[in-house]
Amino acid sequence: MKQADRRYYFIINIFANRGSEASDKLSRLLKQSKLDYKLFKTSRHYNIKDIVQKIQDSLHNRDIIISVGGDGSLGDLVQALKEAGLSNPVGVLPAGAGNDFIRAHQVSTKFEEAFDHLLQVQEPVVNDLILVENAKDKAYVVNSIGAGIDGRVIASISQDKSKQKFGPLTYLAPAVEALFYQSPFDARIKILGREIEVKKTPIILFMNHGSFGGGIQINPQADPTDGFMNIIFAKDLSFWDLLTLVVKIFTSKDQLSHPKVYQVRAKQVEVQVRSNEYWQADGESLGSNQQTYKLSSLKQSYWI
């Protein structure tokens, strides 16, 4: 199918880390292209879900919907499409701080190069998607959801907008801060009726992709197409163990070989965190809470 046979719907999150800059670049690139496209921008009173509701009646299955923003914007778009019952492939152009989704697919984080790549895609690819449910809500997670250090890092960035201006470096200072302030906590993981008691861990992560925080490789072997979540946690870590792991993450990248770090894979899992901990999903803060979640691995079509 040729480009002329499909329409591209670009949704710019103007509040993303580089949303305004991306908006200017995209407008220029689209004027130079021969695409059949529609361009939408969020505002304080017009969010991604509102835009999807506006365009859903005009969409055809062959049309592509592109998120212009960061990983959180991508997650919001997938969430809105799922709620609307739409299965259109989702494309991505980088305008966030981390952009871990496109990094996982070896797509450039330079906007113009990512746009050129988007035009060259011919077929959608299917990746894993995490459905997260609790007693009240359900949500869809593209990259990762976790509690502890990662949640504290994202909470710190969310509370201070000035920290969001430096791309991947955005995460560095809050990560160092989190190492000192995150207390170990207990959790229970249930997989296929088997319960795993997690004692004194500073972090628990459920991942589709290997990186977090702008390319920090937490699980380099993660396969986003295998139908499994990668669940990573630690037990009884001392502060020196934690420092050793940080060094490994940024040097040898063999942190999963540490004797106190554990990885399991599952298609469905239930997790209960027994204290108020900071949570994050796709780089967006979920606040601090004591929570029980049920997570399931689903599929999502992407144009990437």
Task: Describe the secondary-structure layout.
Layout: E1 8-12, H1 19-32, E2 37-41, H2 48-55, E3 64-69, H3 71-84, E4 90-94, H4 100-104, H5 111-120, E5 125-133, E6 138-141, E7 144-148, H6 149-159, H7 172-181, E8 185-191, E9 194-201, E10 203-207, E11 211-212, E12 216-217, E13 229-234, H8 239-250, E14 261-266, E15 268-273, E16 277-281, E17 284-289, E18 292-302
Parallel strand pairs: 1-2, 1-3, 3-4
Antiparallel strand pairs: 5-6, 5-18, 7-10, 7-16, 8-9, 8-15, 10-13, 11-12, 13-14, 15-18, 16-17
Helix pairs in contact: 2-3, 6-7
Binned, the helix content reads 25-40%
Can you tell me the number of structural domains?
A: 2
| H-E string | EHEHEHEHHEEEHHEEEEEEHEEEEE
| Binned strand content | 25-35%
Number of strands: 18
What is the class of the largest domain in the CATH system? Mainly Beta
How many helices in DSSP terms? 8
What do we call the CATH topology of the largest domain?
Tumour Suppressor Smad4
Radius of gyration: 19 Å
Largest sheet: 6 strands, antiparallel
Spans where pLDDT lies below 50 across 5 or more residues: none
Describe the oligomeric state of these chains in a short phrase: single chain
**Helix-and-strand structural type:** alpha+beta
How confident overall, as mean pLDDT?
Answer: 90
CATH architecture of the largest domain: Sandwich
Strand order of the largest sheet: 6-5-18-15-8-9
Write down the overall geometry: globular
Head-to-tail CA distance between termini? 16 Å
